[in-house]
Design goal:
This protein has 175 residues and is mostly helical. It has two domains: 2-71, Winged helix-like DNA-binding domain superfamily/Winged helix DNA-binding domain (Arc Repressor Mutant, subunit A), CATH 1.10.10; 103-174. 65% of the residues lie in helices and 10% in strands. The chain has eight helices and five strands. The protein has helices spanning 2-12, 17-28, 36-48, 67-78, 82-86, 88-97, 104-119, 140-174, and strands at 15-16, 52-57, 60-65, 126-127, 130-131. A three-stranded antiparallel β-sheet has the order 1-3-2. The protein has a two-stranded antiparallel sheet with strand order 4-5. Helix 7 (104-119) packs antiparallel against helix 8 (140-174). The longest helix has 35 residues, at 140-174.
């Protein structure tokens, strides 16, 4: 998701690596702060692939997204990998840039995939292949995990359903 973050922020405007690192760290928060050891090799890979350019601006390097970089970001947003749908932090990175998809139908597809993921029975803990619910968990700390996860997924599903309904309505109004 580092590359998606780089492409997404550069989609907005050209940036110096320092500013890019700050924005990416802000997006990923304390969970995955980006280091120079990760950022610069990723920038080099993207530059080598022709997805961005690097220009000198008074001794500081400014990175700019190319047309191929824009197209690549849109492709990645339109068809995210399964882990980018199922992992909350990865999904948040998608959400940060999903507005760049020009077709609301593509945005809807991504949101529907996330909602479908939530609608599958799941848990951190299983008994005989069946997901355990918080009320079934004797361990108070594991019960806490399940309680918080259930509250989060309930809120996420409500938001997803509302956004999906709004995008569907806008599409219907546009016809």
């Amino acid at each position: 998701m580092l590359e998606v973050s780089i492409l997404g922020f550069l989609f907005e405007q050209p940036m110096h690596a320092y500013e890019l690192r700050q924005r990416i760290s802000g997006l990923s928060g304390h969970i995955k702060p980006v280091s120079d050891g990760a950022l610069y090799p990723a920038l080099k890979r993207l530059q080598t692939a022709g997805l961005l350019t690097k220009d000198d601006d008074g001794g500081r390097q400014v990175y700019t997204l190319t047309a191929a970089g824009r197209a690549d970001l849109l492709r990645r947003l339109r068809d995210p990998a399964p882990v980018e749908i199922t992992d909350r932090n990865n999904f948040f990175i998608l959400l940060a840039f999903l507005r760049f998809l020009p077709d609301p139908a593509d945005q809807l597809t991504v949101l529907r995939r996330r909602l479908a993921f939530y609608e599958e029975p799941a848990s951190y803990f299983y008994e005989q292949g069946r997901p355990l619910k918080a009320a079934e968990m004797p361990d108070r700390f594991r019960r806490g995990m399940l309680t918080m996860a259930a509250a989060t997924s309930t809120a996420d599903k409500e938001w997803l359903r509302a956004e999906i309904a709004d995008l569907e309505q806008r599409a219907a109004d546009a016809r």
